[in-house]
Amino acid sequence: MTHDEFNQYCQSYTGTTYVMQWGNSHIWKVGEKVFAIGTTDNDGLPAYTFKTSDLNYDFLKQSEGYRPAPYLASRGLKWIQQTASNAERDEELRYYLSESYRLVSLGLTKKKQKALGVNQDV
Prior knowledge:
The protein is of the alpha+beta class. The chain is about 35% helix and about 25% strand.
């Protein structure tokens, strides 16, 4: 997945905002809370970071092409970085990005969720 494809996908979610920060990282937020980060690794390749459930974190941290997210995971947060990309991984990434969005948006106050129009069917 390219950064343009990543940005287009993240933009499709309700109530999201985009900012470029942290050394030209593509940061996607819902309700001012980060749910996805697109960066370029040391080899010049795209790398994508997202929040996970405890179960997915334990699984992915041991899977090829994934690693605990630099900085975030070292602080005890359940964030993973995908470091390898291909068509199959792109499909997985879309799933994990949607889960990250869901987890982060569910952590917002009910008032903020309602204002953003997210999780109204939950």
